[in-house]
């Protein structure tokens, strides 16, 4: 009987514990749900504020970028105007430089042409001498062969 009472008591405590846990779970769930319901409008307003802030920041940065680009363009135009005064001097300098380099080029070309012509003449002269020598050697060889042939014919006769 005592044991049955103890088992019954234990089951009763177990059910009470489960009931308390269930109630506690409901309270936590209700609390979280309420907290989320309260947070949603706050999150939306914070998001909107951040979006507005980001938009203002972007517009400010864009204005700074445009201003910087305009300043750079103005500086570039000033440089162009300042350097345009030197344009004639630059063109004159380029013309002088090109003229001097052209004369140097033409002198070197003339020297090269002269050396080329001289080398051609030398080679032609050398070739003439070589051909003349070859013809002379060929002539003497043929003449000697002819004499040899004639001597052999005479010996045969």
UniProtKB/TrEMBL annotation:
Coiled coil, from the record: 3-34, 59-149
Statement: the UniProt record of this protein carries the keyword Zinc-finger: no
Q: Does the keyword Coiled coil apply?
A: yes
Q: Which molecular function GO terms apply here?
A: mRNA binding; translation initiation factor activity
One GO cellular-component annotation of the UniProt record comes to: multi-eIF complex
Key words, A-Z: Coiled coil, Initiation factor, Protein biosynthesis
What processes in GO biological process is this protein linked to?
Answer: formation of cytoplasmic translation initiation complex; translation reinitiation
Q: What is this protein called?
A: Eukaryotic translation initiation factor 3 subunit A
Q: Please give the organism.
A: Eudyptula minor (Little blue penguin)
């Amino acid at each position: 009987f005592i044991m049955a009472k103890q088992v019954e008591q234990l089951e009763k405590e177990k059910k009470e514990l489960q009931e308390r846990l269930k109630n506690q779970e409901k309270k936590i769930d209700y609390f979280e749900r309420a907290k989320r319901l309260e947070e949603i409008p706050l999150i939306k307003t914070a998001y909107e504020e951040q979006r507005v802030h980001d938009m203002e920041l972007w517009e400010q940065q864009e204005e700074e970028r445009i201003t910087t680009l305009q300043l750079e363009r103005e500086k570039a135009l000033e440089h162009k105007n300042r350097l345009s005064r030197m344009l004639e001097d630059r063109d004159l300098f380029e013309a002088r430089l090109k003229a001097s380099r052209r004369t140097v080029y033409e002198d070197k070309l003339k020297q090269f042409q002269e050396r080329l012509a001289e080398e051609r003449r030398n080679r032609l002269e050398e070739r003439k001498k070589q051909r003349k020598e070859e013809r002379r050697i060929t002539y003497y060889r043929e003449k000697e062969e002819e004499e040899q042939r004639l001597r052999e014919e005479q010996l045969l006769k």
